[in-house]
Amino acid sequence: MRLTLLAISACIACDSGSANVAVVAPSGASPTAAASPEAATAPPASATPVSTPSASNEPRSDGHAGCRFQRPEIWSGGKVDWLGDCQNGFAQGSGVIVNVVEGAEAERFYGHLDNGSPSVGVLQTDSGFMAGRWKHGAVAESLPDDVAQRNVTLDAFRVAASAATAVSKSFAKKADTESSSFYATQARVLREQMD
């Protein structure tokens, strides 16, 4: 199983003190597909416009008034987009949050948002993956049972692959073959983490 090839390390959330599971790609392996970053971050017509964080205490302050969402807490800067649906003023359902910081490779959260907050999925960075259930913008504390935690991690990758596939299909409907191909490749990379 490929997960056995991945190094699993614990990350400590800066402000919560809770342990987070990070699944890191093997050294020398890039977790991102070789595709144009510009095409991969181009949102479909229904996506949330680029925004910056608000100074309010509301964590779901990114996005526009009709589709607010919470960025993962490790993203302190950058411009974010939500590639997915909106409901009752918040991002909802399966999709991708893209964070673009000038001069760096875009990072992405693939997964499911409930009422604008990440609930389950995978954060992909240049150093690997953070997978699991999410709470308050961070991976929730690991379960004490290793088998149960492994199942949570596998479910997160399944949800993430499904989100990447949905975004790929959205771009395909708009005849953006480059972005569609990028997200289809990302879906395959995420599914491979479960093998």
How would you characterize this protein structure?
- With 195 residues, the chain is an alpha+beta fold.
- The chain has one domain (2-192).
- 25% of the residues lie in helices and 34% in strands.
- The strands form 2 sheets. Strands 3, 4, 5, 6, 7, 8, 9 and 10 form an 8-stranded mixed sheet that branches.
- The longest helix is centred in the last third of the chain and has 28 residues, at 146-173.
- It is globular, with a radius of gyration of 16 Å.
- Residues 1-55 have low confidence and may be disordered.
| Beta-strand proportion | 25-35%
Order of helices and strands: EEHEEEEEEEEHH
Topology, number of strands:
10
Distance between the termini: 5 Å
> Tell me about the biggest sheet?
8 strands, mixed
Shape: globular
Count of folded domains: 1
Separate helix tally: 3
Helix-strand makeup class = alpha+beta
Q: Give the rounded overall mean pLDDT.
A: 77
The residue ranges in which pLDDT falls below 50 over 5 or more consecutive positions are 1-55
Integer-rounded radius of gyration: 16 Å
**Fraction in helix:** 25-40%
